[in-house]
Amino acid sequence: MPTVVIADDSPVLRRIVSSVLEREGFTVVAAEDGVQAVQAVFATMPDAVVLDVQMPRVSGYVAARVLKDDWRTMDIPILFLTSLDAASDRYWAAQAGAEHFLTKDFEAPQLVGAVTAAMEQADAGRGGRPPLRSDPIEMSDDDVFASVSDILDRKLFESSVASDVMAIAADAHGFEETISQVLSVLARVVDYDLASVLMTDDRSTYIRVACETSQQQYAQFFEAVADAATDATGTAVSVGDLQARVADPERLLGADDEGELATFVSMPLKVSGRMVGVLALSSARANAFGETSLNTLRLVSGPAGVVVANARYAGVDAF
């Protein structure tokens, strides 16, 4: 028997929704606001969640973001049931991770159908495998608000980094300077030894040296960049194909052969789905790029691709 958590600050609507779903065989757990909704989901690990948007303490949008941000609850389908119906409301619901959006003038079959469809969609996404559910977790009010605060801090950080990258387009005056500034922004938020942007059209490659680096590590990085370009483009790229320009103003690239590349990561730079380049970073430290660093790179790759492509194809200087 599937379990559904419903959250609405209206006792009347809670009774109506509970009655409709229980008649169809669902077990219903009711909550009065967004905080209680999050607590109920973690306590019961339900099959679906139905949220109002306008609720005390924490809105439905925020509650949905908390649930979709946690690996233990991110796969549980969420439906919004609200009196709001503007295009912006539906957009924000989708951005919060909701699978369905219903207005409160619903008919009972619509609600049941939407909940059932959301659960079936979740099952299909897992390939028919049973959902992975952690043990029930008791969350205090402070725990919920701490999760909200963490998401807010992270989103502000992400938007600030993306904004810094996009601002480069207004300040930079050339292709090389644009790439240099993109990699400089990255250096402020990700610790790396070497970073590069490879343009896929002509294999031109800009490399920035951020820390003391051996010649051996540099050579290994260069080979890894070629391999990353091969993987990204589906076309064989060798070291000899790359045209490199190295930025090393502090002369950090040494002549010795000590030190090796221990961690390497690359991401494609795309604009409107079209590959324009490959971003790559490396470090002599093992496991140098944790999940936070990878999330930052994923965030930056989009705006970086736009900024770099605009500078590249605007007729400004290239290598």
β-strand percent reads 15-25%
CATH class of the largest domain: Alpha Beta
Helix content: 40-55%
Tell me the CATH topology of the largest domain.
Beta-Lactamase
Ranges where pLDDT stays below 50 over 5 or more residues in a row are none
CATH architecture of the largest domain: 2-Layer Sandwich
Largest sheet: 5 strands, parallel
Backbone shape: elongated
Helix and strand sequence: EHEHEHEHEHHHEEHEEEH
Question: Counting H and I runs of at least 4 residues, what is the number of helices?
Answer: 9
Walk me through what this model shows.
The chain has 319 residues and is of the alpha/beta class. It has two domains: 3-139, Response regulator (Rossmann fold, 3-Layer(aba) Sandwich); 174-313, GAF domain (Beta-Lactamase, 2-Layer Sandwich). It contains nine helices and ten strands. It has helices at 11-23, 34-44, 60-69, 87-96, 108-125, 141-171, 175-189, 215-233, 291-313, and strands at 3-7, 27-31, 48-51, 78-82, 100-103, 194-199, 204-209, 243-247, 263-271, 274-283. The strands form two sheets. It has a five-stranded parallel β-sheet with strand order 2-1-3-4-5, with helices on both faces. Strands 8-7-6-10-9 form a five-stranded mixed β-sheet, with helices on both faces. Helix 2 packs parallel to helix 3 (60-69) and helix 7 (175-189) packs antiparallel against helix 9. The longest helix is centred in the middle third of the chain and has 31 residues, at 141-171. The chain is elongated. The N and C termini lie far apart (64 Å).
